[in-house]
Amino acid sequence: MMGRRKEWLIGLSPLPVVWAAVMLGISVLLAIWLLLQPWLISGLPLILRLPLIILGVWAVGGGLALPLHYSGVPGWWLMAGQLPWYPVVLVLFTLMLLMRSWMM
Q1: 38-42 CB contacts, 8 Å cutoff, 24+ apart
Q2: What domain range includes position 91?
Q3: pLDDT digits (tens, 9 = 90+) for 5-21
Q4: Which of 35, 47, 86, 101 is the most buried (most CB within 10 A)?
Q5: Does residue 21 belong to any structural domain of this protein?
Q6: What rounded mean pLDDT belongs to the chain?
Q7: SS3 call for 46
Q8: What angle do CA 80, 48, 84 make, to 5 degrees?
Q9: In a domain, 66, yes or no
Q10: Assigned domain for 22 exists
Q11: What is the C-alpha to C-alpha distance for residues 80 and 61, in angstroms, rounded to an integer?
Q12: Which residues contact 52 (CB under 8 A, 6 or more apart)?
């Protein structure tokens, strides 16, 4: 029991607050961008649109839920924003949207 980190015992995120704020800001900007320009995803064929929607839900939803990771949230909810996968998904989704906007 001594080898466990305190963050895992009380449910707090090991992500620094500054990085969480940056990722929250990026997620908010992506959500607003998609509200203003929904054709970035809706113009794709269904076979390409579904994986992008799933990736977007994880990226934007996980970013907007990051403040919850600093409270005692139990279970699978913490996995949505765990390191190292969440920042990779956020960057990947952002790059995919940027490439799609430059193609149009």
Answers
A1: 39/104, 40/97, 40/100, 40/101, 40/104, 41/100
A2: 28-103
A3: 544 434 456 667 787 78
A4: 86
A5: no
A6: 77
A7: helix
A8: 25
A9: yes
A10: no
A11: 8
A12: 41, 44, 93, 96
